[in-house]
Automatic annotation (TrEMBL):
<dbReference type="InterPro" id="IPR013033">
    <property type="entry name" value="MinC"/>
</dbReference>
<dbReference type="InterPro" id="IPR005526">
    <property type="entry name" value="Septum_form_inhib_MinC_C"/>
</dbReference>
<dbReference type="GO" id="GO:0000902">
    <property type="term" value="P:cell morphogenesis"/>
</dbReference>
<comment type="function">
    <text>Cell division inhibitor that blocks the formation of polar Z ring septums. Rapidly oscillates between the poles of the cell to destabilize FtsZ filaments that have formed before they mature into polar Z rings. Prevents FtsZ polymerization.</text>
</comment>
<dbReference type="GO" id="GO:1901891">
    <property type="term" value="P:regulation of cell septum assembly"/>
</dbReference>
<keyword id="KW-0717">Septation</keyword>
<keyword id="KW-0131">Cell cycle</keyword>
<feature type="domain" description="Septum formation inhibitor MinC N-terminal">
    <location>
        <begin position="14"/>
        <end position="83"/>
    </location>
</feature>
<dbReference type="Pfam" id="PF05209">
    <property type="entry name" value="MinC_N"/>
</dbReference>
<comment type="similarity">
    <text>Belongs to the MinC family.</text>
</comment>
<dbReference type="InterPro" id="IPR036145">
    <property type="entry name" value="MinC_C_sf"/>
</dbReference>
<dbReference type="InterPro" id="IPR007874">
    <property type="entry name" value="MinC_N"/>
</dbReference>
<dbReference type="Pfam" id="PF03775">
    <property type="entry name" value="MinC_C"/>
</dbReference>
<protein>
    <recommendedName>
        <fullName>Probable septum site-determining protein MinC</fullName>
    </recommendedName>
</protein>
<dbReference type="GO" id="GO:0051302">
    <property type="term" value="P:regulation of cell division"/>
</dbReference>
<dbReference type="GO" id="GO:0000917">
    <property type="term" value="P:division septum assembly"/>
</dbReference>
<feature type="domain" description="Septum formation inhibitor MinC C-terminal">
    <location>
        <begin position="155"/>
        <end position="252"/>
    </location>
</feature>
Length: 255
C-alpha cells in the first residue's frame, strides 16, 4: 500500500473571520507607544495581555524605515501584546511587510483608509478591535447575499464562541457568556445578558447600535470605538441599555 494513502495529514488549514486589535500609530515614538500600550494592558489585562494586534502605519505622513518599524514592533511586544502583521496601506506598506516577514492584513482597509493629505496630529482617534481569546471554537459565520434580513442566533453564546453576522444585523435570543464575542457589520440586539463582548459596525458603520436587555459586558465597540469594563457603573449594571456613537465617543444609556 502506498504510504501516502494511510499517512495522517500533518494539519488542517482554514480561514475565518478573526477579531484582531489594531494599533494605529499616530507618531513615531517607540517609547511612548510602549508606555501607552502598557497602560492599556494594565487597565484591562484580560483583554489586552498577549493580544494579537495589527500595526497600522497609514496615518503617518511618511512610512518609517525598516529599523524604526522593528523598534515599534518591539515596543508592542514589550508592552505585553503580540504583533501579527501590518494593516493594509500603500504599495510601500506591502513592500515593507514583505521585508519584515509580516503578513499584510487587508481586513482594516475600509475602516482605516488614510485621509488624503491629513497630518497624523489630526487623525481620528484609534479604532481598536478587541483581540480574540487564545483558543476559540469554530467561528459561526453566515455570508450575506443580496437583500437579506438579520441573522438570528437562538440560545446562549458560550465562552470561547464567536458569532459574526456579515453585512447584516445580529439578533441573539439568549445570554452572551464571559469570553464570548458577538460581532455584526450592522446593529446587535441581545435579548438576554451580555457578559462577554459585543462589536457592532465591524466594517466601519458608525451609525450601528447595540441593544442589550441585561448589561454586564466585558467590552462593547461600534465601528472600532470601544469601551472596556473592569467594573460596570452602578446605574448600568443589569439594565437594558443601548450603545451608539456620538462623533468618536461611544455612548451608553439606559433604555
Amino acid at each position: 500500500m502506498n504510504a501516502s494513502m494511510d499517512a495522517t495529514d500533518a494539519c488542517d488549514l482554514r480561514f475565518g473571520q478573526v477579531g484582531l486589535a489594531c494599533v494605529r500609530v499616530r507618531r513615531v515614538d517607540a517609547a511612548a507607544l510602549c508606555d501607552e500600550l502598557e497602560r492599556r494592558v494594565r487597565a484591562a489585562p484580560q483583554m489586552f495581555a498577549r493580544a494579537a494586534v495589527v500595526l497600522d502605519l497609514s496615518h503617518l505622513l511618511d512610512l518609517p524605515d525598516d529599523g524604526t518599524v522593528d523598534a515599534l514592533l518591539e515596543a508592542v511586544r514589550s508592552a505585553g501584546m503580540l504583533p501579527v502583521g501590518l494593516a493594509y496601506g500603500t504599495s510601500e506598506t506591502e513592500a515593507l511587510a514583505k521585508r519584515m516577514g509580516l503578513p499584510l492584513i487587508a481586513k482594516f482597509r475600509a475602516a482605516y483608509e488614510p485621509a488624503t493629505g491629513a497630518p497624523a496630529a489630526v487623525a481620528p482617534a484609534p479604532r481598536s478591535e478587541p483581540a480574540p481569546a487564545p483558543t476559540r471554537e469554530p467561528i459561526l459565520a453566515a455570508p450575506a447575499s443580496g437583500n437579506v434580513g438579520a441573522q438570528h442566533h437562538a440560545g446562549s453564546v458560550r465562552s470561547g464562541q464567536q458569532i459574526y453576522a456579515r453585512d447584516r444585523d445580529l439578533i441573539v435570543t439568549g445570554a452572551v457568556a464571559n469570553g464570548a464575542e458577538v460581532i455584526a457589520d450592522g446593529n446587535i440586539h441581545i435579548y438576554g445578558g451580555l457578559r462577554g463582548r459585543a462589536m457592532a459596525g465591524a466594517q466601519g458603520d458608525e451609525k450601528a447600535r447595540i441593544y442589550v436587555s441585561d448589561f454586564r459586558a466585558e467590552l462593547v465597540a461600534i465601528a472600532g470605538q470601544y469601551r472596556v469594563f473592569e467594573q460596570i457603573p452602578g446605574d448600568l449594571e443589569g439594565q437594558s441599555v443601548q450603545c451608539w456613537l456620538d462623533g468618536e465617543k461611544l455612548m451608553i444609556a439606559r433604555l
